[in-house]
Amino acid sequence: MRINVKGVEIYYKVSGEGSPIILLHGNSQDHTIFRVLRKMLSKSYTVYAIDSRDHGRSSRVDDLDYMSKMEDVAELIRVLEVHKPIVYGFSDGGIIGLLLAIYHPELLSKLIISGANINPDGVKRYAVVFMKVLYFFTRNRKIKLMLTQPDILEEELYKITTPTLVLAGHRDVIKESHTKLIARSIPGSELRILPGESHTSYVLHNEKLYGIIKSFLG
């Protein structure tokens, strides 16, 4: 299914019945990374799996920024009248989730993020070097996005009132200190650093994430 958001076609897939939950993928991915998770969640929830702008089956755009991606999701929630959804965001999707909680807290019921950062300094150096080399040769705007954004201030995290779970793998490309900073700055948030897991190992086509989410949601 598609919805037009200010001239941008956003693709989404809906499945299941129950309270709504929105799944937001990472950079250079699409909704299909949640195939396993969506199937499991659909037994208890109405699941909306979204392709971000310039990803998957959504429209291509000239420029990318996290605020526009966030507003796409906010508008989708309003137009489809999705009442107080739970939002789970992975990596770039987690950044979008944080921005939603900061700028549109009235839209959400709960927030779960994993492998997210609030600025490029939160990414480990080896990953930054790799992205810079890749961008030098490809000039890929999706890579440029990760090198230059986001720019979320700690003070903005203090304003979040949505119940939040912050996740990261012990071997994540996001610095553990950075993940802990995010959790510490969001009032009342829960933090889980997952032993043995990388940035993607427990997320992509994996059943582990379902148990983690269900545990938080109760």
Task: List key phrases describing it.
Rossmann fold; 218 residues; alpha/beta; globular; eight-stranded mixed beta sheet; 8 helices
Write the H/E string, N to C. EEEHEHEHEHHHEHEH
Q: Largest sheet, order of strands side by side?
A: 1-2-4-3-5-6-7-8
In helices, the fraction of residues equals 25-40%
Structural class: alpha/beta
CATH architecture: 3-Layer(aba) Sandwich
Span from first to last CA?
30 Å
Return the domain count. 1
Question: What is the tally of helical segments?
Answer: 8
CATH fold descriptor: Rossmann fold
CATH class: Alpha Beta
Largest sheet report: 8 strands, mixed
The dominant shape is globular
CATH superfamily label: Alpha/Beta hydrolase fold, catalytic domain
Strand residues, percent: 15-25%
- Report the average pLDDT across residues: 97
Q: Low-confidence stretches at least 5 residues in length (pLDDT < 50)? A: none
Query: How many runs of DSSP E, i.e. beta strands?
Result: 8
Q: Can you describe what's shown?
A:
With 218 residues, the chain is an alpha/beta fold. It has a single domain (2-217), classed as Alpha/Beta hydrolase fold, catalytic domain (Rossmann fold), CATH 3.40.50.1820. The protein is built from eight helices and eight strands. Strand 7, helix 7 and strand 8 (190-198) form a beta-alpha-beta unit. The relative contact order is 0.14.
